[in-house]
Amino acid sequence: IAMSANSDLSKTVRDKYMRLPQGDKVQVTYIWIDGTGEGLHCKTRTLESEPKGIEDVPEWNFFGSSVFWSDGSNSDMYLVPVCLFKDPFTLDRNKLVLCEVLRHNREPTETNLRSSCHQVMEQAGHSHPWFGMEQEYLLLGIDKHPFGWPKNGYPEPKGSYSCSVGTNKVYGRDIAECHYKACLYAGVKIAGINTEAMPSQWEFQVGPGEGIAMGDHLWMARFLLHRVCEDFGVVATLDPKPMTGNWYGAGCHTNFSTEAMRNQGGLQHIEEAIEKLSKRHSYHIRMYDPKGGADNSRRLTGSHETSSIHEFSAGINNRSASIRIPHQVGQDGCGYFEDRRPAANCDPYAVMEAITRTCVLNEAEPVPAGEVP
Ligand SMILES: *[C@@H]1O[C@H](CO)[C@@H](O)[C@H](O)[C@H]1NC(C)=O
Ligand SMILES: *[C@@H]1O[C@H](CO)[C@@H](O)[C@H](O)[C@H]1NC(C)=O
């Protein structure tokens, strides 16, 4: 197995230093989404005292090299703190802080999708939108081969790997379990974990959360995943079709409800929302991966429990539909629905904004003309 040199460094020696007292000073790690809309970056500074809330964390900046920002300019960018978590690596009172990125003129960058999502959530606040997202990912060695797979060849393809246990079925449980603990410690609203359909593929769930918080918590959970993987010398990929051929892809299934859907008689509101979604399929597909649908075109093939990227569909308990109404919701007559289209590498802010615009703000037209790739 090709592991990174990071994992060979002595964690015992590290612990010796980590136990040193640090006085009143607090380490705060600022985390932001880069110009690809997928990558995360971070850097750490010392504050004189513990921030009690996000308002105590000062703005910071970084030099945005043109390599990573599409307008080609090299200039300072502002880091605006938006959500505060405890640091599970250097331990509380040290903090992790998720930031929005603004340009030197204080306009959001084009990959700062939180800014407009936040405005839409404020407009839709009266409907109390809740989101729950299921993040699928695959573990890789640094040679980009799936972690634990035989060097030359493939694991048993028909093994039932989803929610499995046992040495011949489960790869990398240490990583998923450490990530789960790290999320709980940090204060991320993680709901659970399980193995997924492909060996070395895992899923964690975040939510349910109301409004913008869901996106903040999912991004922090992704940061923690990449950081935990460093300790183990492996890589987590969110690519929506990491292995070509007869293997499952990776999605970010999104549960959604409004207060009206959750209350008695809610099924009618769910059906109305699905009707609205059916008229805006191509808009949603464009919002559901960072490449305007091109990534999802590898995944949404109509097989491996996915719908076709070209057609909208919905059904009770149908995992091959764009929208699934869970069986229990059909029985109870209220609850939520699951949008199965978002790709694993989606920006949750874009997904949440699109669903809310269509289902709550009743935006229908104009749908900008654009082909599904
Ligand atoms: C979303 O709903 C499904 C059932 O349809 C459930 O299994 C899953 O845990 C939910 N996920 C979140 C994050 O709420
Ligand atoms: C589920 O939805 C897909 C896509 O619309 C459809 O082809 C399939 O027949 C449906 N399955 C069931 C059991 O209704």
TrEMBL record:
GO terms for biological process: glutamine biosynthetic process. Residues 26-106 form the GS beta-grasp domain. Signal peptide: none annotated. It is found in: Cytoplasm. The keyword Ribosomal protein does not apply. Its EC number is 6.3.1.2. It comes from the Eukaryota. InterPro entries: Gln_synt_N (IPR008147), Gln_synt_N_sf (IPR036651), Gln_synth/guanido_kin_cat_dom (IPR014746), Gln_synth_cat_dom (IPR008146), Glutamine_Synthetase (IPR050292). The keyword Nucleotide-binding applies. Keywords: ATP-binding, Cytoplasm, Ligase, Nucleotide-binding. One of its GO terms (cellular component) is cytoplasm. GO terms for molecular function: ATP binding; glutamine synthetase activity. Gene3D superfamilies: Glutamine synthetase, N-terminal domain, Glutamine synthetase/guanido kinase, catalytic domain. It is an enzyme of class 6 (ligase). SUPFAM superfamilies: Glutamine synthetase, N-terminal domain, Glutamine synthetase/guanido kinase. Residues 113-373 form the GS catalytic domain. Belongs to the glutamine synthetase family. PANTHER family: GLUTAMINE SYNTHETASE. This is Glutamine synthetase. The gene is LOC114642612.
